[in-house]
Write a structure and sequence with these properties.
Layout lengths: L1 E5 L4 H10 L4 E6 L9 E4 L5 H11 L3 E4 L13 H21 L3 E7 L22 H16 L2 E7 L2 E2 L6 H10 L4 E4 L3 E2 L2 E2 H18 L6 E4 L6 E2 H14 L9 E4 L19 H7 L6 H17 L1
Parallel strand pairs: 1-2, 1-4, 2-3, 4-5, 5-6, 6-11, 7-10, 8-13
Antiparallel strand pairs: 9-12
């Protein structure tokens, strides 16, 4: 099976690459210089529609995995066209090609499609109501994929982190090492999700498609790890482990504050906890342990720093 993976050098893409090696011939795209990873690397700017069309016609992939996204949440407020081009235009192009060429599409979306006013975890059947351009662009991507009619799964997820790239875990460690007293938002709640767990869930979707087909296994599904936290509590977990593993000498002064203390262009949902019941029923995929996952990530960071 030929697999096209976009955004392959990102947090999720780089976790997917080694897991896909046994599933077919992987063609990985990224706009920059590719890392050393097991794949056929193709340098491609995903905003180049004609270049992507040429690549699709040449490769004829049977499975397209789209991890590429515009994720600069605040910048999107002033860069609306680009946010929609990448988060909605690219999925439309891929889904259209997949539909007419009988390929399957695996895509990713966000908890930011919801308004954050719920008091229980959001289900896939709940009505989206994004409050920022980023969330609106990701929702547009979900909808256009459905309209194209191809076999697909869109995985909505939240608060993705890993031992590499740009994410909350690495940002907190960097700030703590500067000796700064930290104020962290305590009135926004979601489910931190390790990129590798999301990658494993993705491969489980692919395996289920192979074994059982796509009937009743197409559409939007929620996946996140098993614990919901606010940003302040998440930071506390990070610093507890960092001190235990001697990544930090001591925990920084940490103060919980409301999100209003940090005015930002884009509005964030106050509550974006996702219900993962449906993906368990359809694919037998269940949330991984937040506690175990964060510890593994901290160990990876430690090992990298010891090299």
């Amino acid at each position: 099976m030929k697999i096209l993976l976009t955004g392959a050098a990102g947090q999720l893409g780089s976790e997917l690459l080694p897991l896909l090696a046994n599933h077919g011939e992987v063609f990985a795209t990224d706009r920059g210089t590719p890392p050393s990873a097991p794949a056929n690397w193709i340098q491609l700017d995903i905003s180049d529609k004609e270049g992507l069309n040429v690549l699709l016609r040449r490769l004829q992939p049977e499975l397209i995995i789209n991890t590429a996204a515009y994720t600069a949440v605040d910048q999107a407020e002033n860069d609306v066209d680009m946010a929609f081009a990448i988060n909605a235009g690219l999925p439309e192009q891929l889904a259209h090609w997949a539909n007419i060429n009988d390929a399957r599409l695996l895509h990713y979306s966000t908890d930011y499609v919801f308004n954050g006013e719920a008091q229980v975890p959001y289900r896939e059947s709940d009505i989206p109501d994004p409050q920022c351009v980023y969330g609106a662009s990701k929702l547009a991507g979900e909808l256009v994929i459905r309209e194209m009619g191809c076999d697909h799964v869109t995985l909505r997820t939240s608060w993705v982190y890993s031992s590499h790239g740009k994410n909350f875990v690495l940002s907190m460690l960097d700030l703590a090492r500067r000796g700064l007293a930290l104020k962290v938002v305590a009135d926004q709640r979601g489910c931190p999700t390790w990129a590798r767990n999301l990658a494993r869930a993705s491969v489980a979707v692919i395996n289920a498609w192979k074994a059982f087909g796509t009937e009743e296994r197409s559409g939007v599904f929620h996946y996140c790890d098993d614990r919901d936290l606010n940003w302040y509590d998440f930071a506390g977990c990070i610093f507890d482990l960092a001190v235990e593993k001697k990544l930090l000498e001591s925990k920084p002064d940490l103060t919980p504050v409301p999100g209003s203390e940090f005015p930002q262009p884009a509005k964030r949902p106050g509550w974006s906890v996702l219900d993962t019941t449906l993906i368990g029923q359809a694919f037998d995929i269940h949330p991984a342990s937040f506690t175990e996952s964060l510890e593994i990530v901290m160990n990876e960071i430690l090992q990298r720093e010891l090299i």
